[in-house]
Amino acid sequence: MKTAVASCTLLASLALLAGPAHADRRAFTRTYEYMTMPEGETELEIYTTQSKTTFDNPSPKEFELMLEIEHGITERWDVSVYHVFKQSTGPAVEDNSPFHFDEIKLRSRYRFAERGELPVDLLAYGELIKVFGEGTWEAEAKAIVARDFDKLTIAVNAIGEVKFGPSVPEPEVEAGYAAGVTYEAVPEWKVGVESWGGFEIEHTDELAASVGPAVSWAPASGFWVATTVGFGLTDYADDFSVRALFGMDL
Question: Residues near 182 by Cβ (< 8 Å), separated by ≥ 6?
Answer without folding.
Answer: 27, 28, 152, 153, 155, 190, 191, 192, 214, 216
